Amino acid sequence: MSSLSSASSSHALRRAAGRGAPSSIGIVAAPGVELVFLGAVTGLLACRGRGNLGCVRRGIVCAMTTPTFADVDAALAHQDYRSALAMLESLEVVGEDACYRRDIQAAACADRLGQYPLCEEYATRARAYGDDMADPFALIARAQRRQGLVADAAATASSGMRLHPQSPEIARELTLSLVDLGRYEEALPVSEIATDGFPDDVELLMAYGRLWAPVEPNGAQWAFGCAKVNAPDLAEAKFAYDSFAYPLKGAGRSSYSIEMEPAVAEAYRRMLKRVTFGLDKAWIFAIVGGFGAGLGYLLTLRIMTDELALFFFLAYAACALSGYAYAFLQIALFNRTLPRGVRLTFRCLRKRFPELGSSVMDFVRMIVLAGLILFTLMALTR
């Protein structure tokens, strides 16, 4: 599972450790086996593994407990969530606090492993011990959202926010769910709580930018910019940021709403790929054009005239400029997908992709060099 969606599960793993199990008397019987003696306890809750909740009243219970919470914590320290989950599922614990810790940690591990139905099951069990903790609500909501149950996730997170109005974990899930449902007005206030708690969460930042784009362009640009910094390889983040930092000509403060249209977005990606290819190879066209024109000039030197020499020079120029002509053609074709009065300029594209500037300089150097060689050749042979 992506690290972008693991914030609440990490928080759950840390906070669960704070709710310790009731005291017991441990008697070491053999290496790896501990006998736990619980005597004369009234109303004590005993939990054994997944799906085995029960109560023990007035009696003596001997339980062989392998592994322990210490073993689980060691696995979590190494981020071995699969082993930790396996140990938690076989763990025998006694007392409500210990049962809560076991279930919430199991839910968080399942979340990290992408086992969302199991995460929802364990988090629901953890919530049954009381509504005083925020983690179960956040984990249930995310598990539901990851399973495509976005409306259920929003309802779960909304219930959690009423009980824990300042919880960034629940606010995160509620924001993402409401944005997915298109309920932007409801998501606006809670999104501030979420981003305050998770300022580097890329998934949340992308949703925040999308949410605030029509309301506060500066806030949306900040969110997309942070997402771009935290995830440099995420093309969507750069795409969205550029629409605010370097909007299309004629679009005003931002061209985000225009460029996010599926047809426009697809045309932009296709155009960018072709323009990059054309500009990267332009210097090769210049070299090939110069060599071809020079060779043709030498082969026809005996019948050379001023008109024929001009033809070879113009042929070189056309070949050398073909890469740029191809790039500008692609930009023009892309502009046909935009609304009237809005267009992408080459200057804007260079601002969005400064590396294109190096391609321009390579081209200029090659065209000057090849042109100078061709001109010198013509001058020396006339």
What is the element layout, followed by pairings?
Elements: H1 7-16, E1 25-30, E2 33-38, E3 44-48, E4 53-56, E5 61-64, H2 69-77, H3 81-90, E6 92-94, H4 96-112, H5 116-127, H6 135-146, H7 150-163, H8 168-181, H9 184-197, H10 202-212, H11 217-230, H12 235-245, H13 256-259, H14 262-280, H15 282-299, H16 306-335, H17 346-352, H18 355-381
Antiparallel strand pairs: 1-2, 2-5, 3-4, 3-6
Helix pairs in contact: 1-4, 1-6, 2-3, 3-4, 4-5, 4-6, 5-6, 6-7, 6-8, 7-8, 8-9, 8-10, 9-10, 10-11, 11-12, 14-16, 15-16, 15-18, 16-18
Q: How would you sum up this structure in a few lines?
A:
This protein is mainly alpha-helical and 382 residues long. The chain contains 18 helices and 6 strands. The chain is 66% helix and 7% strand.
Describe this structure in words.
It is a single chain. The chain is 66% helix and 7% strand. By secondary structure, the chain is mainly α. The protein has two domains: 3-198, Alpha Horseshoe (Serine Threonine Protein Phosphatase 5, Tetratricopeptide repeat), CATH 1.25.40.10; 262-381. A hairpin with a 4-residue loop joins strand 3 and strand 4 (53-56). It is elongated.
